[in-house]
Give the backbone structure.
Amino acid sequence: MPLRLAIGPRDLAAGVVEMNAGSRRIPRRRNPVPLASLATSIRAFSTRSSARCFERAVALRASKTFVVDSYDEFKAKIESGGFFHMRWCASAACEAKVQGRDQGDDPLRPFDGKVDAGPCVVCGTATDSKRAVFARSY
Ligand SMILES: [Zn+2]
């Protein structure tokens, strides 16, 4: 998040700096910060804005993450993008089908998560592993 600092003669005489988010989307308001504590204020702003960015990214990822149990559902949703957790037999044939027809990227095999046995969404072969994550690269 960009940070905007403005200082004029009156601010300097008062020992303050005008500090606001540099984004045009956020309305500016008068936010005088004492010059003596400017470094601390900038550090706090950076920490808050980083936390907000991280929270937004986590929320966006959650909104674009789908647990999919049918290949038709995957094909319908892949055009809109996202992360698709699917049971997958890990065969080269199924991977080639997903990558070739639907232009999915290499599947991700997560280290964490629980085993979720069931049929591969592509070929129906029984699987007893964790769900793989498919997505399309941009
Ligand atoms: Zn399969």
User: Anything to note?
Assistant: The pocket of zinc ion is lined by residues 89, 91, 94, 120, 122-123, 125 (CB under 6 Å). The helical segments are 9-14, 38-63, 71-78, 92-102. The beta strands are 3-6, 16-21, 32-34, 65-68, 83-86, 118-119, 126-127, 132-134.
